[in-house]
Amino acid sequence: FICIFFKFLLLSDPELFPLQIVSRCDICVLQDVVDPELKAVKALVTSLNRYDEHHYEYVSSQSLGKTSDDLQQYVFIYRTHLVKQLGQHQYKGKAFVRPPFAVHFSCNKTDIKEFVLVPLHTDPDQAVQEIDWLYDVFEEVSAKWNNTNVMFLGDFHAGCAYVTRDDKKNIRLFTNSNFSWLIGDREDTTVTDQTNCPYDRIVVHGQSFLQAIRPFSGMVFNFGKEFRLKQAKVLKLSDHYPIEVRLKGSAPLLQATPLLVVGAIIRFVFPAL
Ligand SMILES: *[C@@H]1O[C@H](CO)[C@@H](O)[C@H](O)[C@H]1NC(C)=O
Ligand SMILES: *[C@@H]1O[C@H](CO)[C@@H](O)[C@H](O)[C@H]1NC(C)=O
Ligand SMILES: *[C@@H]1O[C@H](CO)[C@@H](O)[C@H](O)[C@H]1NC(C)=O
User: Which of 70, 135, 139, 179 measures 20 to 30 Å from 15, CA to CA?
Assistant: First the structure.
């Protein structure tokens, strides 16, 4: 599964590239989605179902944010033959600007059969605090579903001026060794040459989840390179690259079995239609 967060500007005219990116994934997480009536999301899923051999469904959070002119949703898009949604939960504790929205999934084809995905798009002004609060989110969702296989992912603003090396001691997801960061501090998840920052991250809890992930599969997907797009064109789609991670499959991969891929982050901003 790949989870993708995308900044996605042109949905009235669904472009091929977003479809190609989303259809690499078994699960995509989109953040920064501004589409309260879900028109753009539905159009995207309809196009996917037409374009791709797999069948996709979506689940969305409510519009979240502090002010009415900046409300965003978290949206998951997933392949129904592979994964099943077991439950969803809107976190309400702590003062997140866009509180995490957790979804509990099951998948029979991966080593790990049940896991929880929790996206977060931090507020840059309180990124350190919000990343630290993910520990409280972990306690709540793992207790709710009796499952400690929890993966956090998204644009945490976890680098450059927002989160410094010194800040890490105040972030329990760093200080508690049960959490593993799969996108390292040296990555650059931003598109422009002007910045070199590992803002987008994937963090998993626990040894069993870590062992169910293909080693070194957490990475930034530079779709500009892959699709040979000019930087200006890439920037029209997003100012961040997606990040992604792959889960190990439980059975030897049959030829017909799609690669089991998890993770990824592109940020789609859907225009309010
Ligand atoms: C996995 O297998 C169980 C038991 O056979 C079944 O109930 C469930 O629907 C399957 N899950 C998926 C995603 O196919
Ligand atoms: C919670 O999960 C553990 C380990 O998977 C299991 O042994 C235990 O019975 C579960 N507890 C409940 C209340 O379901
Ligand atoms: C890490 O996880 C183990 C197993 O769940 C637990 O016993 C231990 O207390 C955890 N360590 C920390 C620092 O939370």
Answer: 70
Domain membership of residue 183 (yes or no) is yes
Q: Measured in Å, how far apart are the chain's first and last C-alpha atoms?
A: 29
Q: What predicted TM-score, i.e. pTM, was given to this entire model?
A: 0.89
Please check whether residue 272 lies inside any domain of the structure: no
Q: Which residues have any ligand 3 atom within 6 Å of their CB? A: 176, 178
Report phi then psi at 129, rounded to 5. -60, -45
From the CA of 128, how far away is ligand 3's center (Å)? 22
How many CB atoms lie under 10 A from the CB of residue 231? 11
Atom of ligand 3 nearest to the CA of 206: 2
Domain residues for 195?
2-266
Q: Does residue 273 sit within a domain?
A: no
Residue 118 lies in a domain: yes
Determine what percent of the chain is predicted with pLDDT higher than 70.
85
Write the CATH number for 231.
3.60.10.10
> Comparing 143 with 242, which gets the higher pLDDT?
143
Ligand 3 mean position, distance from CA 246 (Å): 24
What DSSP element (H or E) covers 52? none
Helix, strand, coil shares of the chain, percent, nearest 5, are 25, 25, 50
Ligand 2 centroid to Cα of residue 146, in Å, is 6
